[in-house]
Specification:
single chain, 7-stranded mixed beta sheet, alpha/beta, 261 residues, Rossmann fold
């Protein structure tokens, strides 16, 4: 199954904010409620310890991604760790909810952040969850090169995979999110309208979810991207972590002076 570079509706500039926020709110709820990225805590803890970083800059955060759950796990060993959420289209209301729920361990950058050109004042271990596949190989390479040029380590984590089983799970995931919509916070009557009476949110969520699977990079494709970087002092690690419900594809990049073991 070859990777395709198609569009996801909620990432387009013309996508109305109510729809984009409805999609990212649902994903954020699902990631944390079902702890889908919980297995990455061990990888992140190992990387943070080895790079001696006390700050994480998350890119393409949507409505907060899996950070409420992950932050609790990481703060058990790193109570001073600070996490910053950023996005090209920041969902500030959702970010504020996540910050309040994290007891201010999670903060957010209010301005738009392009992952290929991160502001220099945002320093820390960079992460991307379920967003790297949005980018073409050229833009994906630019994201990694920007981290290298800034001297920052980076971790990419993706649950979508180009596999029939994962595409099938996408249908189940969207169904569960639709059933759980009344429990998504902050509660909004409009969310019920666009989920049940006019079901545009679950339809777009399903479409974008399937497209996400078809757009994801396999570890070997990530390696091909990395090989074209100008990064002689960087070490790269990529693979699939398979302790959860579905394997999580990951890519780690860090200066060679940092030994991740």
């Amino acid at each position: 199954m070859r990777r395709i570079q198609f569009i996801e509706i909620h990432e387009q500039p013309w996508c109305p904010p109510f729809l984009r926020n409805g999609i990212t709110d649902a994903l954020q709820f699902g990631f944390n409620r079902f702890k889908m990225y919980a297995p990455t805590a061990a990888i992140l803890r190992r990387a943070l310890d080895s790079t001696a970083s006390q700050s994480i800059v998350d890119m393409g955060s949507g409505a907060g991604g899996p950070w409420l759950d992950l932050a609790r796990k990481l703060h058990e060993d790193s109570p001073d760790l600070q996490i910053w959420l950023t996005d090209k289209y920041p969902n500030l209301a959702a970010f504020e909810t996540v910050r309040a729920g994290s007891e201010n361990h999670i903060n957010f950058y209010t301005a738009s952040v392009d992952a290929t050109n991160v502001p220099l004042e945002l320093k820390g271990f960079r992460t991307m969850f379920t967003s790297f596949h949005h980018f073409s190989p050229e833009d994906a390479r630019a994201i990694l090169q920007n981290a290298v040029d800034a001297g920052q380590s980076i971790g990419i984590f993706e649950i979508p995979r180009r596999a029939p089983s994962t595409i099938g799970l996408t249908f189940v995931f969207v169904l569960m999110l639709s059933v759980c919509t009344p429990w998504i916070r902050p509660f909004r009557w409009s969310r019920l309208l666009w989920t049940y009476l006019i079901p545009i949110v679950p339809l777009v969520l399903l479409f974008d979810g399937v497209v996400s699977c078809l757009r994801t990079y396999r570890p070997q494709e990530m390696r091909e991207i990395v090989e074209k970087l100008t990064a002689p002092e960087y070490q790269w690690e990529m693979g699939e972590h398979s302790t959860g419900v579905t394997p999580i594809t990951y890519l780690l990049g860090y200066p060679r002076k940092c030994v991740v073991s």
